[in-house]
Amino acid sequence: MIRVETIKVALPLKKTFRVAKGEARDKVNLITILNNRYGGEAAASVYYGPTITELEADLKKGIERLTKRRSLDLQVLEEIGAYDIHPIARSALIGMVLNYLSGESGRYPWEIVSLGAPVGIRNSITVSIGEPVEVIEAIRSSDRPIIKVKMGGQYDAEIVHALQDAAGGREVRVDANGGWTSAQAEEYIHHLANLGIRVVEQPTGPETIADWPHMKGKHEDVELILDEGLNTLQDYEKHSSHCDGINIKMEKSGGIIEAAKIARRAREDKKKVMLGCMVESSVGIAQSVYMSSLADYHDLDAPQLLEDDIAQGIIYDRDTIHVDREIIGGPSLKRDVVEKYIRK
Prior knowledge:
alpha/beta; Enolase-like, domain 1; TIM Barrel; 2 domains; 8-stranded parallel β-sheet; 3-stranded antiparallel β-sheet; 14 helices; globular
C-alpha cells in the first residue's frame, strides 16, 4: 500500500537571507513522506513563488495520482515528470519516490538513476545582500575557501571595490540574480574580471540573455552562468549559445530526471554545470547530491544556512559534502527536530 503524508514546516535561518529580489528570516517548506520513511521536499522561491497554498494543492493532485498505483518502479519517475503540477511539487515527489526505490532495493539512490557516486563535492558558502560593512565582514571572517557573494543591490560598487582585499586569496563567485541592467553588468563584469573573479551568475534578467556575450567583451576567462530562465532542456537549447554555463536547481527542472538530461547536454556542449538550491533542508538537497558527478560547481549550502537541519545522511564539513553510508533510502528525518517546526 502506498501512503503519503505532507507536513508543513517553518525552518528558521541563522540570519536573514537577502538576494536581489527578496529576503527571508525563516522558510516555509512542505515535506512529503512515503510510507512513514521516505522523504521529499517542496521549497518555493521567496520571490518567484508559488504560494504555499498553491504548492499544497499541486502536491495533493500529484499524491492522488501516485497513490492510485499498486506499486512503484523506475518508470514512475518519468510519469511524475509529466504530471501537470508545478515543477517544485514534481521534484518533491520524484525525490521521495527515488528514495523509496533506493530503500526498498537496498541500492544507493544515484545507482537507481545510473549516475556516478557523489565524491569530491566542494561546496560554496553564500553571503547574502546587505550593507557593505556587513557583507565585507562576512567575507573576511568566513573560514570557507569558496565564497558566493550575492549582488544586485544598491551597494554593489562599494562591495566590488573591497572584494579583493576581503577575499584574502580565496575563490569568490558572484551572483547578481538578474539585478543588474545591461550597462551595469558590462561595467561590473569588467571590474570583477580584473579582480580575478571568473564565475558570474545571472548578471541580468532572462530578457537580455542574448546580450551576455557582448557584456563579457574580451574577458574570455569569465564564465557567465545562466540560472533564471533555465527550467527545462528546451530552455537550455534556447539560451545555451549565449552563456558559458548553467545553474540547475531541482525545483525549477522538476526533479533529477529532467535535471540530469540538462546537465548531460550541457557537458556535451562543453558548458560548465553548477548545481544550486532553494532555501531547504538536506531532504531537498539530496537529489542534487545524487547527481553531483555531473557538475563542475556545487552551490548547495542551504542546510548550512538553517538553524537546524531536519534530516541526517548528508554531511557538511566546511566546504565539502559527504554522504553517510546509511544514505540508502535517502536522508532520515530527525523526528524531534521536525516536530519543533511543524506549522499547521
